Amino acid sequence: MAKIASDQLFVLVRSxxxxxxxxxxxxxxxLPGGAKSSVxxxxxxxxxxxxxxKALRRSETYLSGxxxxxxxxxxxxxxxxxxxxxxxxxxxxxxxxxxxxxxxRRKRLFMQAIPLLKKAQQLAEKSGNAFAQLEIAAQxxxxxxxxxxxxxxxxxxxxxxxx
Length: 163
Fold this sequence. Notes:
Elements: H1 6-15, H2 18-29, H3 34-47, H4 53-59, H5 66-86, H6 90-106, H7 110-127, H8 130-147, H9 149-162
Helix pairs in contact: 1-5, 2-5, 3-5, 6-7, 6-8, 7-8
């Protein structure tokens, strides 16, 4: 990942409202031990009126891996925001379902993928998103083809032609 400018991290932290900050801390608390230092860095940046990296380095024990810690915090903040606002967007939910179905298709778990795509299709229809409906229809066609449903139908046609 590209280097995250410190001022970008500072601006992101300062742009969060109280609900987003609380959600971030709860989100980070669920993660393994590495997130604890990220919360400390988050709090330290949040207390600053003007970004001062030297003061952060003096006040906390980030001497080794400070750049990596900033990058990790930035990514963690984006993940937290994505999770917090995911419920507000039907398009995000549709994309999640499509992604899950695609992962199941790659593992050749076709019968598990089809219901996910059907649910995504219902959400797309309900939200009136024609583009998502087309994407899902194409994805369903690919899934049926990969699962052999299309192949078995074609072989049935061939067997009828030979009779």
